[in-house]
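2024-03-11 09:14:02 INFO worker-7 job=invfold-0412 stage=load source=structure_tokens
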């Protein structure tokens, strides 16, 4: 069985990570009703028998005694934050028994919404400590497949220290795939310097990540509002199953009152649950994580994958027919289900992956791909650029679900808007002094970062320019006689 290491950085990264582990426990509990320590559970957790000192085999008469995030096998978790608040909440909350101090790196003062503090100051200060904890986690992996980094782009620790960790991973483990889940700030973000932080972080993502899953706060907020409107509409047949919503914590270990961002964080956590489902459960067509990068990233810098989740909820009224399977596939390509503000159907696809869970047949997959093909624009040299995966275990509250990952030029407007917000500040040299007083930080860092982003946008422009041309079949090999 393959293993991965999860690295949660900053407030957002740790809050999303907390929801991920919480909902993962809910998912395994729904499948493993007897509480038997099985192979699926072992992919995330090790069993600790507290009655035998804590470090023994950990299984007491075949039953789970307590669970801890895996230290010796499969997925590991490293929690990093330069403020103690969120990590302390995790350690004092219902998941306190899942983590231990060996998995934590914290400080008290924070990064002050400053990429340079997180990357240049705390990065070098904590470098050896981070490398040591990563190596200890990796040493116990039989087949390390990838690293997951969860972070935000707008703050100081998530953007700065998060991308510093990304660089470390490439230096220390260059052969291991690096997946990054990056939460991008909205235009109305309350962090004034978030455009600086995001563009500086983008340069590191361009150069050091294998796959990036960009997620916009604005899209998460829209999905939460859409579900709330459905629940409160009062229309006949609009009753929604509580545990079926991608925003829901129902049935999880979390028993304290939910916070405003929990619903948004749950959406990202559900993305990660579906992404890792093939590594945790059986399926007729399981997809390894390294296959995603291999099949969806034809060019090294164009590794930003637009994600969508469907269904967002399940109707509870028995008189209303369940959502048709074909509708689920159609929704995955609709604007309302994307986790960034984008419409992939009107942009160009380089490749697309469909990760399906539940009682879905390969024939259903193929039928829907053929049905949707005519409405989607693929690059001429990769008209059959589909990758599919089937996991037999559906998410809690659903009979089936779909995660779509698209390498699509629709991500370009997000980057253009980010560049525009950056330039508004940078033209006036506003707030630069907060960055430039940090050792190792120079103004050239800003010019290089925006240049890297401009080059990325231009690469997408070149692809879009070719989209308007007529579709032609690839030329066949001509043999001279």
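2024-03-11 09:14:09 INFO worker-7 stage=emit residues=481
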């Amino acid at each position: 069985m393959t293993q991965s290491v999860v690295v949660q950085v900053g407030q957002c990264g740790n809050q999303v990570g907390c929801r991920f582990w919480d909902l993962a426990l809910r998912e395994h509990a729904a499948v493993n009703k007897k509480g038997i320590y099985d192979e699926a559970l072992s992919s995330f957790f090790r069993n600790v028998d507290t009655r035998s000192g804590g470090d023994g085999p950990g299984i007491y008469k075949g039953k789970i005694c307590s669970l801890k995030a895996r230290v010796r096998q499969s997925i590991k978790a490293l929690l990093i934050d330069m403020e103690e608040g969120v990590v302390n909440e995790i350690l004092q909350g219902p998941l306190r028994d899942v983590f231990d101090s060996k998995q934590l790196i914290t400080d008290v003062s924070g990064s002050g919404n400053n990429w340079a503090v997180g990357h240049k100051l705390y990065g070098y200060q904590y470098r050896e400590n981070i490398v040591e904890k990563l190596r200890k986690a990796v040493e116990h992996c039989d087949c390390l497949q990838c690293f997951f980094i969860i972070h935000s782009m707008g703050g100081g620790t998530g953007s700065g220290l998060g991308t510093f960790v990304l660089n470390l991973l490439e230096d220390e483990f260059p052969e291991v795939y690096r997946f990054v889940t990056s939460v991008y700030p909205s235009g109305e973000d309350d962090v004034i310097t978030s455009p600086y932080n995001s563009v500086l972080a983008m340069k590191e993502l361009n150069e050091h990540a294998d796959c990036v899953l960009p997620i916009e706060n604005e899209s998460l907020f829209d999905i939460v509002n859409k579900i709330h409107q459905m629940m409160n509409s009062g229309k006949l047949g609009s009753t929604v199953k509580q545990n079926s919503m991608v925003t829901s914590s129902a049935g999880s270990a979390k028993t304290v009152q939910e916070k405003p961002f929990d619903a948004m964080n749950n959406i990202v956590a559900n993305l990660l649950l579906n992404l890792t489902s093939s590594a945790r459960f059986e399926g007729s067509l399981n997809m390894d994580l390294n296959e995603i990068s291999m099949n969806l990233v034809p060019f090294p810098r164009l590794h930003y994958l637009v994600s969508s989740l469907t269904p967002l909820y399940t109707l509870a009224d028995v008189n209303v027919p369940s959502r048709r399977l074909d509708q689920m596939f159609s929704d995955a390509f609709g604007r309302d289900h994307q986790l960034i503000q984008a419409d992939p159907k009107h942009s160009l696809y380089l490749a697309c992956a469909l990760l399906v869970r539940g009682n879905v047949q390969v024939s259903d997959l193929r039928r829907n791909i053929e049905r949707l093909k005519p409405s989607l624009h693929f690059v001429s040299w990769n008209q059959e650029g589909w990758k599919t995966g089937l996991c037999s275990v559906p998410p809690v509250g659903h009979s089936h679900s779909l995660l779509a990952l698209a390498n699509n030029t629709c991500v370009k407007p997000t980057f253009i808007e980010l560049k525009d917000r950056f330039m508004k500040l940078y033209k006036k040299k506003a707030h630069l002094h907060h960055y430039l007083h940090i050792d190792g930080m120079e103004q050239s860092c800003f010019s290089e970062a925006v240049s890297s982003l401009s080059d990325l946008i231009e690469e997408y422009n070149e692809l879009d320019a070719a989209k308007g041309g007529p579709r032609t079949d690839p030329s066949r090999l001509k043999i001279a006689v």
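2024-03-11 09:14:09 INFO worker-7 stage=report msg="The chain has 16 helices and 15 strands."
2024-03-11 09:14:10 INFO worker-7 job finished
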